Amino acid sequence: MTASVGDVVAQLRAVLESLDAAVVTALRAQADADQAKAHFTEVATGTDHSKIRAAVTASQTASEKVARYARLLAKANESLTIYLNTIAPGSAPTHQASDGTAPSGERLVAEAENASSGVAAFLRRQVKKADDTQDTLKQVEQAVTTGLKELLREYKEGPGPTANTTATTSPGADTQVARPTVDHPVAGVVMAVGAVAVGTKGLWNMIKKRRERKHDEDQARDGRVHPDDGEGGSRSQRSD
Amino acid sequence: MVEYIRTMVKGDHEANDRIEAELDAQGWDNFPTLLGAVFYFSVNRRLSPKATAGEIMLFVAEMRAAAPSGSQIDPTAAEKLVRAALDPSIDISVEPQMVGRIQGMTILHILSNPEVTDQDLETLLANSVDASNQA
After folding, report:
1. pTM, two decimal places
2. Does B64 touch chain A (CB under 8 A)?
3. Do B57 and A27 make contact, defined as CB atoms within 8 angstroms?
4. What's the average pLDDT block by block, 10 residues per block, for chain A (240 residues)?
Protein backbone atom coordinates (compact mmCIF):
# COMPACT_ATOMS: atom_id res chain seq x y z
CA MET A 1 0.00 0.00 0.00
CA THR A 2 1.38 3.41 -0.92
CA ALA A 3 0.94 6.24 1.56
CA SER A 4 0.08 9.40 -0.33
CA VAL A 5 0.62 12.94 0.91
CA GLY A 6 -3.15 13.02 1.44
CA ASP A 7 -2.92 10.05 3.83
CA VAL A 8 -0.13 11.71 5.79
CA VAL A 9 -2.06 14.99 5.95
CA ALA A 10 -5.17 13.15 7.18
CA GLN A 11 -3.14 11.44 9.91
CA LEU A 12 -1.49 14.70 10.93
CA ARG A 13 -4.83 16.48 11.08
CA ALA A 14 -6.17 13.75 13.37
CA VAL A 15 -3.13 14.25 15.63
CA LEU A 16 -3.74 18.02 15.56
CA GLU A 17 -7.35 17.60 16.64
CA SER A 18 -6.31 15.25 19.42
CA LEU A 19 -3.76 17.82 20.59
CA ASP A 20 -6.50 20.47 20.63
CA ALA A 21 -8.64 18.26 22.82
CA ALA A 22 -5.69 17.49 25.09
CA VAL A 23 -4.94 21.19 25.63
CA VAL A 24 -8.55 21.88 26.58
CA THR A 25 -8.59 18.91 28.93
CA ALA A 26 -5.33 19.98 30.54
CA LEU A 27 -6.58 23.52 31.13
CA ARG A 28 -9.76 22.17 32.59
CA ALA A 29 -7.72 20.01 34.92
CA GLN A 30 -5.77 23.12 35.89
CA ALA A 31 -9.01 24.97 36.67
CA ASP A 32 -10.06 22.02 38.84
CA ALA A 33 -6.69 22.01 40.60
CA ASP A 34 -6.98 25.77 41.23
CA GLN A 35 -10.44 25.25 42.64
CA ALA A 36 -9.18 22.41 44.85
CA LYS A 37 -6.38 24.66 46.11
CA ALA A 38 -8.90 27.39 46.95
CA HIS A 39 -11.00 24.90 48.90
CA PHE A 40 -7.98 23.48 50.75
CA THR A 41 -6.77 26.98 51.55
CA GLU A 42 -10.17 27.87 52.95
CA VAL A 43 -10.24 24.70 55.04
CA ALA A 44 -6.68 25.37 56.22
CA THR A 45 -7.60 28.78 57.64
CA GLY A 46 -7.02 28.75 61.37
CA THR A 47 -5.26 25.40 61.41
CA ASP A 48 -1.64 24.43 61.06
CA HIS A 49 -2.21 20.76 60.38
CA SER A 50 0.57 19.36 58.22
CA LYS A 51 -1.81 17.26 56.08
CA ILE A 52 -3.88 20.28 55.11
CA ARG A 53 -0.80 22.30 54.26
CA ALA A 54 0.45 19.34 52.20
CA ALA A 55 -2.88 19.29 50.33
CA VAL A 56 -2.58 23.01 49.54
CA THR A 57 0.98 22.53 48.28
CA ALA A 58 0.06 19.43 46.26
CA SER A 59 -2.87 21.13 44.54
CA GLN A 60 -0.67 24.14 43.78
CA THR A 61 1.98 21.84 42.26
CA ALA A 62 -0.69 20.00 40.26
CA SER A 63 -2.00 23.28 38.90
CA GLU A 64 1.48 24.46 37.85
CA LYS A 65 2.42 21.15 36.25
CA VAL A 66 -0.81 20.85 34.30
CA ALA A 67 -0.42 24.46 33.15
CA ARG A 68 3.10 23.66 31.90
CA TYR A 69 1.78 20.52 30.22
CA ALA A 70 -0.93 22.58 28.48
CA ARG A 71 1.62 25.13 27.27
CA LEU A 72 3.80 22.35 25.84
CA LEU A 73 0.84 20.75 24.09
CA ALA A 74 -0.16 24.12 22.67
CA LYS A 75 3.42 24.61 21.44
CA ALA A 76 3.37 21.15 19.83
CA ASN A 77 0.05 22.02 18.23
CA GLU A 78 1.46 25.25 16.84
CA SER A 79 4.57 23.53 15.39
CA LEU A 80 2.51 20.75 13.83
CA THR A 81 0.16 23.30 12.26
CA ILE A 82 3.10 25.13 10.68
CA TYR A 83 4.57 21.85 9.38
CA LEU A 84 1.22 20.70 8.00
CA ASN A 85 0.67 23.99 6.22
CA THR A 86 4.19 23.73 4.78
CA ILE A 87 3.69 20.28 3.21
CA ALA A 88 0.07 20.98 2.25
CA PRO A 89 -0.69 24.73 2.31
CA GLY A 90 -4.04 25.65 3.82
CA SER A 91 -4.72 22.15 5.14
CA ALA A 92 -4.63 23.09 8.85
CA PRO A 93 -6.65 25.84 10.53
CA THR A 94 -4.52 28.52 12.14
CA HIS A 95 -6.51 29.53 15.17
CA GLN A 96 -3.74 31.44 16.86
CA ALA A 97 -3.42 35.17 16.31
CA SER A 98 -0.42 35.83 14.08
CA ASP A 99 1.54 37.96 16.52
CA GLY A 100 4.69 39.59 15.30
CA THR A 101 3.58 39.99 11.72
CA ALA A 102 2.42 43.19 10.06
CA PRO A 103 -1.37 43.47 10.22
CA SER A 104 -3.19 43.11 6.93
CA GLY A 105 -5.33 45.92 5.52
CA GLU A 106 -8.39 43.83 6.23
CA ARG A 107 -7.30 43.45 9.83
CA LEU A 108 -6.67 47.18 10.24
CA VAL A 109 -10.12 47.94 8.86
CA ALA A 110 -11.59 45.33 11.17
CA GLU A 111 -9.80 46.85 14.17
CA ALA A 112 -11.05 50.32 13.30
CA GLU A 113 -14.53 48.91 12.95
CA ASN A 114 -14.18 47.28 16.34
CA ALA A 115 -13.04 50.49 17.98
CA SER A 116 -16.08 52.37 16.70
CA SER A 117 -18.70 49.76 17.35
CA GLY A 118 -17.51 46.33 18.35
CA VAL A 119 -20.92 44.95 19.15
CA ALA A 120 -22.36 46.11 15.81
CA ALA A 121 -19.44 44.49 13.99
CA PHE A 122 -19.96 41.26 15.92
CA LEU A 123 -23.69 41.19 15.17
CA ARG A 124 -23.05 41.93 11.49
CA ARG A 125 -20.70 38.97 11.30
CA GLN A 126 -23.26 36.81 13.05
CA VAL A 127 -25.95 37.76 10.53
CA LYS A 128 -23.50 37.42 7.62
CA LYS A 129 -22.71 33.90 8.75
CA ALA A 130 -26.43 33.13 8.74
CA ASP A 131 -26.70 34.56 5.20
CA ASP A 132 -23.81 32.38 4.03
CA THR A 133 -25.50 29.12 4.99
CA GLN A 134 -27.87 27.18 2.77
CA ASP A 135 -30.65 27.54 5.34
CA THR A 136 -32.89 30.58 5.42
CA LEU A 137 -32.27 33.28 8.01
CA LYS A 138 -35.43 32.12 9.76
CA GLN A 139 -34.11 28.56 9.99
CA VAL A 140 -30.79 29.75 11.36
CA GLU A 141 -32.57 31.88 13.98
CA GLN A 142 -34.68 28.89 14.96
CA ALA A 143 -31.59 26.70 15.27
CA VAL A 144 -29.86 29.24 17.56
CA THR A 145 -32.98 29.53 19.72
CA THR A 146 -33.38 25.75 19.84
CA GLY A 147 -29.77 25.40 20.97
CA LEU A 148 -30.31 27.85 23.83
CA LYS A 149 -33.64 26.32 24.92
CA GLU A 150 -32.09 22.85 24.85
CA LEU A 151 -29.19 24.03 27.03
CA LEU A 152 -31.52 25.76 29.51
CA ARG A 153 -33.59 22.57 29.86
CA GLU A 154 -30.39 20.74 30.80
CA TYR A 155 -29.54 23.41 33.39
CA LYS A 156 -33.04 23.30 34.85
CA GLU A 157 -33.26 19.53 35.02
CA GLY A 158 -29.66 18.38 35.23
CA PRO A 159 -27.43 17.72 38.21
CA GLY A 160 -25.05 20.38 39.49
CA PRO A 161 -21.56 21.18 38.26
CA THR A 162 -19.15 18.30 38.05
CA ALA A 163 -15.58 17.60 37.09
CA ASN A 164 -16.73 15.16 34.43
CA THR A 165 -14.40 15.40 31.45
CA THR A 166 -14.91 14.27 27.90
CA ALA A 167 -12.80 15.29 24.93
CA THR A 168 -15.42 16.35 22.41
CA THR A 169 -13.23 17.25 19.46
CA SER A 170 -13.52 14.41 16.98
CA PRO A 171 -10.82 13.41 14.50
CA GLY A 172 -11.56 12.61 10.87
CA ALA A 173 -13.83 9.68 10.12
CA ASP A 174 -11.06 7.47 8.81
CA THR A 175 -8.87 7.97 11.86
CA GLN A 176 -11.44 8.27 14.62
CA VAL A 177 -10.37 7.18 18.08
CA ALA A 178 -13.12 6.19 20.50
CA ARG A 179 -12.96 8.16 23.75
CA PRO A 180 -14.93 6.79 26.66
CA THR A 181 -16.20 9.26 29.24
CA VAL A 182 -13.95 9.58 32.28
CA ASP A 183 -14.75 11.03 35.66
CA HIS A 184 -11.43 12.51 36.62
CA PRO A 185 -9.78 15.45 34.85
CA VAL A 186 -6.27 14.06 35.20
CA ALA A 187 -7.43 10.73 33.76
CA GLY A 188 -8.92 12.79 30.94
CA VAL A 189 -5.54 14.36 30.29
CA VAL A 190 -3.85 10.96 30.25
CA MET A 191 -6.48 9.59 27.86
CA ALA A 192 -6.21 12.59 25.58
CA VAL A 193 -2.44 12.08 25.43
CA GLY A 194 -3.11 8.41 24.70
CA ALA A 195 -5.28 9.40 21.75
CA VAL A 196 -2.48 11.62 20.47
CA ALA A 197 -0.06 8.73 20.88
CA VAL A 198 -2.35 6.41 18.88
CA GLY A 199 -2.59 8.94 16.07
CA THR A 200 1.15 9.56 16.11
CA LYS A 201 1.85 5.82 16.12
CA GLY A 202 -0.33 5.34 13.04
CA LEU A 203 1.58 8.09 11.27
CA TRP A 204 4.89 6.68 12.42
CA ASN A 205 4.00 3.20 11.11
CA MET A 206 2.98 4.67 7.78
CA ILE A 207 6.26 6.56 7.39
CA LYS A 208 8.27 3.57 8.60
CA LYS A 209 6.64 1.26 6.05
CA ARG A 210 7.36 3.74 3.30
CA ARG A 211 10.99 3.97 4.37
CA GLU A 212 11.30 0.19 4.55
CA ARG A 213 9.80 -0.17 1.11
CA LYS A 214 12.19 2.46 -0.26
CA HIS A 215 15.05 0.72 1.49
CA ASP A 216 14.11 -2.63 -0.12
CA GLU A 217 13.90 -0.99 -3.51
CA ASP A 218 17.30 0.68 -3.01
CA GLN A 219 18.80 -2.62 -1.95
CA ALA A 220 17.41 -4.38 -5.00
CA ARG A 221 18.77 -1.65 -7.25
CA ASP A 222 22.17 -1.61 -5.52
CA GLY A 223 22.25 -5.40 -5.80
CA ARG A 224 21.90 -5.11 -9.53
CA VAL A 225 24.54 -2.38 -9.91
CA HIS A 226 27.07 -3.31 -7.18
CA PRO A 227 26.50 -6.97 -6.29
CA ASP A 228 29.68 -7.33 -4.18
CA ASP A 229 30.25 -3.97 -2.49
CA GLY A 230 28.70 -4.94 0.92
CA GLU A 231 26.67 -1.73 1.23
CA GLY A 232 23.41 -3.61 1.57
CA GLY A 233 24.56 -5.34 4.77
CA SER A 234 25.50 -2.16 6.58
CA ARG A 235 22.29 -0.42 5.48
CA SER A 236 20.15 -3.23 6.77
CA GLN A 237 21.49 -2.54 10.28
CA ARG A 238 20.66 1.15 10.12
CA SER A 239 17.95 2.17 12.48
CA ASP A 240 15.34 4.82 11.76
CA MET B 1 -37.40 38.88 25.01
CA VAL B 2 -34.94 40.57 27.31
CA GLU B 3 -37.05 39.28 30.20
CA TYR B 4 -36.32 35.75 29.00
CA ILE B 5 -32.58 36.37 29.34
CA ARG B 6 -33.01 38.21 32.66
CA THR B 7 -34.93 35.27 34.23
CA MET B 8 -32.43 32.85 32.71
CA VAL B 9 -29.50 34.64 34.36
CA LYS B 10 -31.31 35.01 37.69
CA GLY B 11 -32.25 31.33 37.73
CA ASP B 12 -35.98 32.09 37.95
CA HIS B 13 -36.99 28.89 36.18
CA GLU B 14 -40.72 29.27 36.67
CA ALA B 15 -40.85 32.73 35.10
CA ASN B 16 -38.43 31.62 32.40
CA ASP B 17 -40.66 28.67 31.46
CA ARG B 18 -43.69 30.96 31.32
CA ILE B 19 -41.95 33.50 29.07
CA GLU B 20 -40.64 30.70 26.87
CA ALA B 21 -44.21 29.45 26.33
CA GLU B 22 -45.33 33.00 25.48
CA LEU B 23 -42.50 33.47 23.00
CA ASP B 24 -43.21 30.06 21.44
CA ALA B 25 -46.70 31.37 20.73
CA GLN B 26 -45.66 34.87 19.60
CA GLY B 27 -42.44 33.99 17.76
CA TRP B 28 -38.75 34.42 18.51
CA ASP B 29 -37.96 36.80 15.64
CA ASN B 30 -34.61 38.58 16.09
CA PHE B 31 -33.97 36.86 19.40
CA PRO B 32 -30.52 35.57 18.23
CA THR B 33 -29.45 39.19 17.65
CA LEU B 34 -30.29 40.11 21.24
CA LEU B 35 -28.63 36.93 22.48
CA GLY B 36 -25.54 37.74 20.41
CA ALA B 37 -25.37 41.25 21.87
CA VAL B 38 -25.65 39.96 25.46
CA PHE B 39 -22.95 37.39 24.64
CA TYR B 40 -20.69 40.09 23.19
CA PHE B 41 -20.97 42.39 26.21
CA SER B 42 -20.59 39.48 28.64
CA VAL B 43 -17.40 38.22 26.99
CA ASN B 44 -15.93 41.73 26.84
CA ARG B 45 -16.79 42.26 30.49
CA ARG B 46 -14.87 39.14 31.47
CA LEU B 47 -11.94 39.01 29.02
CA SER B 48 -9.56 41.60 27.60
CA PRO B 49 -9.52 42.09 23.82
CA LYS B 50 -5.86 41.09 24.08
CA ALA B 51 -6.65 37.79 25.80
CA THR B 52 -4.27 35.05 24.68
CA ALA B 53 -5.39 31.74 23.18
CA GLY B 54 -4.46 30.10 26.49
CA GLU B 55 -6.61 32.51 28.52
CA ILE B 56 -9.56 31.84 26.24
CA MET B 57 -9.00 28.09 26.48
CA LEU B 58 -8.87 28.36 30.26
CA PHE B 59 -12.06 30.41 30.34
CA VAL B 60 -13.90 27.83 28.20
CA ALA B 61 -12.55 25.04 30.39
CA GLU B 62 -13.80 26.81 33.54
CA MET B 63 -17.19 27.34 31.95
CA ARG B 64 -17.50 23.67 30.99
CA ALA B 65 -16.39 22.57 34.44
CA ALA B 66 -19.09 24.73 36.04
CA ALA B 67 -21.88 23.42 33.78
CA PRO B 68 -24.17 20.51 34.70
CA SER B 69 -22.65 17.17 33.78
CA GLY B 70 -25.07 16.56 30.90
CA SER B 71 -24.44 19.94 29.27
CA GLN B 72 -21.63 19.79 26.78
CA ILE B 73 -20.47 22.23 24.15
CA ASP B 74 -17.83 21.93 21.45
CA PRO B 75 -14.79 23.56 23.13
CA THR B 76 -13.07 24.45 19.87
CA ALA B 77 -16.22 26.16 18.59
CA ALA B 78 -16.61 27.93 21.93
CA GLU B 79 -13.05 29.26 21.81
CA LYS B 80 -13.66 30.46 18.26
CA LEU B 81 -16.90 32.24 19.18
CA VAL B 82 -15.38 33.87 22.27
CA ARG B 83 -12.40 34.97 20.22
CA ALA B 84 -14.79 36.42 17.60
CA ALA B 85 -16.37 38.61 20.29
CA LEU B 86 -12.92 39.97 21.17
CA ASP B 87 -11.33 40.17 17.73
CA PRO B 88 -13.30 41.51 14.72
CA SER B 89 -10.99 39.76 12.26
CA ILE B 90 -12.18 36.32 13.37
CA ASP B 91 -14.88 34.76 11.24
CA ILE B 92 -17.91 33.23 12.98
CA SER B 93 -17.96 29.73 11.57
CA VAL B 94 -19.96 27.79 14.14
CA GLU B 95 -23.07 25.74 13.50
CA PRO B 96 -26.17 27.79 14.61
CA GLN B 97 -27.54 25.35 17.18
CA MET B 98 -24.09 25.17 18.78
CA VAL B 99 -23.99 28.99 18.73
CA GLY B 100 -27.15 29.02 20.87
CA ARG B 101 -25.66 26.53 23.33
CA ILE B 102 -22.30 28.30 23.58
CA GLN B 103 -23.75 31.79 23.92
CA GLY B 104 -26.22 30.57 26.55
CA MET B 105 -23.55 28.81 28.60
CA THR B 106 -21.19 31.79 28.37
CA ILE B 107 -23.85 34.29 29.44
CA LEU B 108 -24.91 32.10 32.36
CA HIS B 109 -21.30 31.54 33.45
CA ILE B 110 -20.35 35.22 33.39
CA LEU B 111 -23.53 36.98 34.47
CA SER B 112 -24.56 34.51 37.19
CA ASN B 113 -21.36 35.34 39.05
CA PRO B 114 -22.16 37.00 42.40
CA GLU B 115 -19.76 39.82 41.51
CA VAL B 116 -22.22 40.96 38.84
CA THR B 117 -24.67 43.27 40.60
CA ASP B 118 -28.30 43.82 39.60
CA GLN B 119 -27.27 47.24 38.34
CA ASP B 120 -24.47 45.72 36.23
CA LEU B 121 -26.94 43.25 34.75
CA GLU B 122 -29.52 45.91 33.95
CA THR B 123 -26.92 48.15 32.28
CA LEU B 124 -25.60 45.27 30.21
CA LEU B 125 -29.10 44.20 29.16
CA ALA B 126 -30.07 47.79 28.25
CA ASN B 127 -26.93 48.15 26.10
CA SER B 128 -27.72 44.81 24.45
CA VAL B 129 -31.28 45.86 23.63
CA ASP B 130 -29.97 49.11 22.09
CA ALA B 131 -27.37 47.25 20.03
CA SER B 132 -29.85 44.65 18.77
CA ASN B 133 -32.36 47.36 17.83
CA GLN B 134 -29.71 49.13 15.78
CA ALA B 135 -28.39 45.96 14.10
Report:
1. 0.55
2. yes
3. yes
4. 73 78 74 82 78 84 83 77 79 51 49 62 78 72 91 81 38 33 45 47 53 66 51 39
